[in-house]
Amino acid sequence: MSSIPxxxxxxxxxxxxxxxxxxTFRAADGLWExxxxxxxxxxxxxxxNPALVHDFYNERRRRLRQSxxxxxxxxxxxxxxxxxxxxxxLLVTQNIDxxxxxxxxxxxxxxHGEMLKIRCExxxxxxxxxxxxISPASICPCCHCAGGLRPHVVWFGEMPFHMDExxxxxxxxxxxxxxxxxxxxxPAADFHRTAKAAGAETVELNLEQTGGNFDRxxxxxxxxxxxxxxxxxxxxxxxx
Length: 240
Ligand code: BJW
Ligand code: ZN
Known about the structure:
The chain is 32% helix and 19% strand.
């Protein structure tokens, strides 16, 4: 570490959950191999075929509940570091799974939403839905109308969540760490530039180098490189 950080923003993507058994999007065996992006990750696709989109998310929700899906050493290392670090720490995830929560992360923003929540487009309610399969006929638990429920996620063309809080943290951080994201999707793909412009050191942790312009990179599986990276700070950043 070139200097001792006081404020850290970490961005995670699908790669941090890959070793927990959740497929990434753009790998050869990824989610986009089986589905056309525009069919399942856009408001237009949902309007055309809501049953197909609900099934896509029902299936992913079911997978998340399977016993072999659990936080890996990458998720756990982030939560442990946050618990011990005496400075400011914000974890921003593009992932809609709950593996960071299960690992114990606390200051966590899901910028692309959460698979275990649904939203009613008729009354605006956002409610937890951990288990039930949803269909176009499902009834909203708040307004009791059918036909308004959708996954509480951010599709292409929609505004990601928590942008004000994220941009404020990026402007104030002195270390930005991007983990397991391909950098194909904006605005997350720009975060390292925003942090750099604010004076932060930028680091990429990924299976392979992406096209981003980071100061430093460490390459390998997240379950190995994330614990190794976060173990590499002087003890003084933990003592109060
Ligand atoms: C490992 C590993 C291991 C694997 N260990 N690593 C033209 C130019 C610029 C922008 C646009 C444009 N046209 C349209 C746009 C905007 C558009 C966009 O970015 N389009 C691109 C296609 C160009 N963006 C939007 O529409 C966004 N909204 C928006 O921009 O609003 C306006 C705005 C303006 C100003 C400020 C703010 C906003 C919304 C984007 C919504 C994305 N939604 C999805 C679906 C979410 C729900 C769901 O999960 O179903 O989000 S798409 C999908 O991609 C998902 C992911 O979060 C996101 C990113 O994917 P991620 O995580 O990077 O996964 P992969 O698979 O791509 O990469 C995995 C990585 O892991 C790889 O690098 C591997 O190497 C690595 N890896 N195993 C370590 N074991
Ligand atoms: Zn409703």
